[in-house]
Amino acid sequence: MPPLTTTAASAPVSFARPSIGAGEIAEVIDTLESGWLTTGPRVQAFERRFAEYVGAPHALAVSSCSAALHLSLLAAGAGPGDEVVTTPLTFCATANAVIHTGATPVFADIDPVTMNLDPAAAAAAVSPRTRVLLPVHFGGRPVDVPAFTALARDRGLLVVEDAAHAAEAVVAGRKIGTTADFTCFSFYATKNLTTGEGGMVTTASEEAATRMRVASLHGMSRDAWRRYEHGGPADYEVVMAGFKYNMMDLQAAIGLHQLARLDQMLARREQIWRQYDDGLADLPVTRPVPPDAGMVHARHLYTILVDRDVCGRSRDELRARLAAEGIGTAIHFTALHLQPFFRERFGLRRGQFPNAEFVSDRTLSLPLSASLADAEVARVIDAVREALR
Ligand SMILES: Cc1ncc(COP(=O)(O)O)c(C=O)c1O
Question: Which of 52, 234, 248, 249 has its CA 20 to 30 A from that of 150?
Fold first, then answer.
């Protein structure tokens, strides 16, 4: 293969540099000048437009996906004595949210090809105590939604989807955000759509949306903006011990413009994905499998599997080599049952979820962001090729 053109510069390539445009910056300044910083008209507009984007009846903007997961699981009725079936190949926030409701996370293995929760393994993990299925759209690839919907229907369960990686995803002709009882999105700094920190829950249930809104702001029956708006009632009632999970207008100011550019940014991520696919095709690493027909993959993580026996280098050696070149990478994820807290609290051990362990030991996510230049992508490809030569 001929050498790829690279930049002469060896400027660092960060793992997920946010793509922030002039629109986001101007809207933040307008928000600062408006005198209204916290939950207000921009949050309301962001919720409306996000609901339209995914086609969901209700959207609630919150401070993080972790908050979205907590509120959704509570609204789904998860609590002490209940079990929630989820994947071990996820960020700790997925399982932590279950624990914060008082319920117990029960892990089931992944499909080694898609890296998503395997519906058959999830079905085998369902017990009389199971209340919720909590699949994660890993790296932006939608899970087998029809299989989880059928399992939930057959066993009388609710589905909460962790769509932290998957705002743009579509499966079986349906947009993620409309396929579960509750869908939770993340707008953390590295995500395809960012507000710095932030999250969203979508649901078709008006009653659940109202309960989550109250729970997201101290359990007060009216939010601050309505309390202080002109001529509005100055009063509120505390109806539960709620949380401080509301989103600020300062965050929504960024989100409104990110959302408007989301599909354009996805198109750029798809281009970069193809560059990686082409540039790494002849290397002895496992690349992400293409999405199924009719699926929109949100292209959040380009993860390769690096097997020392096949590549001659371990994942960690490759990662160190790339870091020495100024190239940021990340590990998604160390399987949760291998983390000390989950191991000790739930008596878990290596060997229980072999597919998740296989990925966990070998996975490496390469830089991916709509703001990456072609030359930066070429530099990453060259560095990986050089390291594995
Ligand atoms: C799969 C998954 N779920 C949940 C979260 C939590 O998102 P947040 O940081 O918005 O709370 C993350 C964050 O990276 C994630 O990757």
Answer: 52
Q: What is the DSSP letter of 244?
A: B
What is the average pLDDT across 173-183? 97
10 is a domain residue: no
Question: 212-266, pLDDT tens digit by residue?
Answer: 999 999 999 876 556 666 665 557 889 999 999 999 999 999 999 999 999 999 9
91 CB within 6 A, ligand 1:
yes
Domain boundary among 231, 260, 289: 260
Residue nearest to ligand 1 atom 16, measured at CA: 91
Closest Cα to residue 121, out of 131, 107, 132? 107
- Catalytic residue IDs: 191
The whole domain housing 130 covers: 22-260
User: Which of 5-9, 296-300, 355-359 is predicted with the least confidence, judged by mean pLDDT?
Assistant: 5-9
Are 319 and 361 part of one and the same domain? yes
Evaluate: CB of 66 within 6 angstroms of ligand 1. yes
Residues contacting residue 343 through CB under 8 Å, at least 6 positions apart:
337, 349
Atom of ligand 1 at shortest distance to CA of 188?
10
Find the DSSP H helices in 156-261.
206-216, 224-228, 249-260
Does some domain include residue 27? yes
DSSP state of 141: P
Q: Is 326 exposed, middle or buried (0-12, 13-18, 19+ CB in 10 A)?
A: middle
Is 3 part of a structural domain of the chain?
no
Q: Give the mean model confidence (pLDDT) for residues 265-294.
A: 97
- Nearest-10 crossing angle of helices 22-34, 249-260: 150
17: in domain? no
Of 240, 260, 280, the residue at which a domain comes to its end is 260
Length of the chain: 389
